[in-house]
Here is the input.
Amino acid sequence: MTNGEPTQEPVQRGLRTGRLEAFSDGVFAIAITLLVLDIALPATAAKHLLRSLGDLWPSYVAYVASFGTIGALWLGHNVITEYLDRVDAVFIRINLLLLLFVAFLPFPTRIVADYISEQSPERVAVTFYGVTFLLAATLLLVLWRYAVRRRLVRPDMNDEEIDLLTQRLTPGLGGYLVLIVAGLFIPIVAVIGYLAVAIYYIVPSRGLTRLIRRKLHRPQRS
Amino acid sequence: MTNGEPTQEPVQRGLRTGRLEAFSDGVFAIAITLLVLDIALPATAAKHLLRSLGDLWPSYVAYVASFGTIGALWLGHNVITEYLDRVDAVFIRINLLLLLFVAFLPFPTRIVADYISEQSPERVAVTFYGVTFLLAATLLLVLWRYAVRRRLVRPDMNDEEIDLLTQRLTPGLGGYLVLIVAGLFIPIVAVIGYLAVAIYYIVPSRGLTRLIRRKLHRPQRS
Amino acid sequence: MTNGEPTQEPVQRGLRTGRLEAFSDGVFAIAITLLVLDIALPATAAKHLLRSLGDLWPSYVAYVASFGTIGALWLGHNVITEYLDRVDAVFIRINLLLLLFVAFLPFPTRIVADYISEQSPERVAVTFYGVTFLLAATLLLVLWRYAVRRRLVRPDMNDEEIDLLTQRLTPGLGGYLVLIVAGLFIPIVAVIGYLAVAIYYIVPSRGLTRLIRRKLHRPQRS
Amino acid sequence: MTNGEPTQEPVQRGLRTGRLEAFSDGVFAIAITLLVLDIALPATAAKHLLRSLGDLWPSYVAYVASFGTIGALWLGHNVITEYLDRVDAVFIRINLLLLLFVAFLPFPTRIVADYISEQSPERVAVTFYGVTFLLAATLLLVLWRYAVRRRLVRPDMNDEEIDLLTQRLTPGLGGYLVLIVAGLFIPIVAVIGYLAVAIYYIVPSRGLTRLIRRKLHRPQRS
Here is the structure.
């Protein structure tokens, strides 16, 4: 019976998305919360604690920029999986690759926090930071484009809706490229730029909000 | 068909709350569990381990106060999302901002634990701690008030019920302001005060319990 | 209408257990995984890495004992919430107190790992470790007894079934008391004993397995 | 009534798998995300940050190999629990033992990252790493074979399907044995080999994909 009816609805779903979402949410939530471990006072801070806390500003900026970026990636991931009808094995692999870079982000964040206020290595630190962001954002777009090409998206989505999300996910990549180059000249501007890109992704676009509403006509998955 | 019937029920729900809750629960749970990493013995503890463990009392107090505060914020977040009919894109952004401060809390906790028993920098440490609490609690209230103003709450909630939760979330802010000032004079009193505010939030109020019961007449979301 | 029918079924449920379980699972999972961070080689390990890895045996024993204990507490928590019909506000508070000790466990684990092989402070370390275990296990029993006394358990549970779970959760406390005393004389025996208690809790009892089967006659929550 | 009808459907299910999956997902996600904490620059890195970041290549290789392995174990765990009709108490114990090794993996990963580029202790480090992988992969196979032997798998699975998953989980063990021996001679080859085994597990096999599709004919568990 099971292999006699290969075209019926549950077959199309591929793998369940529930545990993929749970595992991904876990990695996003842990990576975003581990960022705080990299904010540390030097051992000599006791004497001038207020000034020492102030001197940590690069750590705070890096914390907020990385928090915003991981938050934006999580939000994008969230929207993509909402659009999906099913996932396949390649999708899971691309998703693992995306999570590999998400989980890696606390390390370049720490590098930026440690070296942004120093003269010589700040360029290297900020470039390393930006490249990791660029790779993670690219993989999120790859994840989405793969889902579209392999028709994993819900059948009731029309082309206009799909294009709108693609357009939404793409310009950030250009932004990252510009900021990586800018960071070679004025590193701190690049860090603030990364925060701006994160805010751009987080701020709701009208078109997308409209799409999400339509999407909710289908019965809710848990 | 989808845009021809904009007033039907699923459209009103906005985004699914499931993954927002899962991600938020993750951040709360991780932040509350990372607190223990900041309790550390000095390298010279071996000789008088019992005394060294006793000397860590500021770490224990800070651990309990922060654990209680994150627990209280989680509980408040829990109640708010229970009341919601749907979330919108701005709600998600305010929620990310709240989580930014929740995930940050282990850092001021470590600062308080390290400097509360020292003379000079304890005022700075306790103020830094209190301001973070105040910001997190304020954002929780902002989240709730935004949800009320934008009518994201369930339609069967009446004004009395909404006011009761608002009244419940508000006085803690005044408490934090008083304690921040008190901490400038007697730091340790402020830390114990923060624990007291957390207990106040956690202890059930009669009115709220009654409300929660009523709320459960609706079919359970998972 | 909502307050005119106070006796109907949803009212009795109190708060939803879903997020309480998700948050608790998160804290248990994080605390159990953070244990590994406390296993660390000394800086001088490079020369004789194999011997240095062997010299870490107290860390491995403490890791396994704590992992087993947190695993056993999670399992007990799991069984208790399975039995519940609903939770109330006090239950949530006791649960937060239990999680406070669960999340604290990585610290005494580190203390035991660091000092078990040294002469003088090992007694203090092992006692500190055992007392934390005792408090966590006691709170788990308090959680269960509170749920029974306040009739939060499912109405179709009979007294025999409730007694069986109570009997299952109780003897470990006596075991911890004996081991705390034993640890004052032969510390390493106590650590191995804590592992044995964890295994006792994890190993399935016949009576309990039978109960769990019966319990599953009700429709599945979540 | 409950014990008068022991053969009806819910009784066969044993324990709910929901919280076992949630707890396991949590441990997998946390262990995979903690790996990044072990990537650290030496204190002298400021002068030649780019070179210092390059010198960390063993950390990156170890990070990717461990991330891939935990990802593969999670994927295998995912497939196994998908096949299950119910779990029993022994299954839960074996699962805890598997998680014990999964949660342990960040430690050997750190050892490999620290010592792979040094002459003498690299053999020990790589062997320690490989043995942990072998034990975790073996436990995953034990978990599956136990589920098959105790007839915990879904009744509509036929023998061919079960054999296919067994064949899929088995050869990696041989791969680990070969790599552990190879690591005694050329350590870095073994580390790259571990990454290759992880990719082998992650890359979808045709037979398995077909099976997973069939499996989805049953109603979805949440």
Remarks:
- Chain D is about 75% helix and 0% strand.
- The two ends of chain D are 28 Å apart (CA to CA).
- Chain D has a mean pLDDT of 79.
